[in-house]
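HUMAN: Forgive my ignorance: could you write out one protein's sequence and backbone structure tokens?

ASSISTANT:
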Amino acid sequence: MPEPENVDLREAVTWVVNNYELVVVSTSKGGFDLLWKNALTEPPSNAAKSYMRFAAGNPAKFFSDVAPRFVQENSDEEDSIEDIAREKKSLAEMKKLLRQLRGEKEVAPPPPPSGKKRGRPRKVIPEAEKEDEKEPRLP
């Protein structure tokens, strides 16, 4: 009996994503055929073959639920935060360039929130009136 293989699921799923269009061929009866010889490389494991079979029968489920769990460029949260910051900066630069092309005046960015609530100013009640409110009023 062969020994179980050490399976790298990320590698298996990535292989399926890269070879799906080449291997899975729709039939005229609404089914599919798997043409393994069309793959760019041999499947790295039996798990990759199983994932390909699943993807062929359930492409929406595979590509929306399974593949995103394993195929990520950066799984590091810090990298994601840095990417978001870079994208925000890039968007700001593009907006600035568009304003310049339109001939608009450069507008300063809004100040960061101060933590104070906006709205009507609160009414200040003198101390003498506050003391009066503590005593019950008779009608």
Residues 9-70 form one domain.
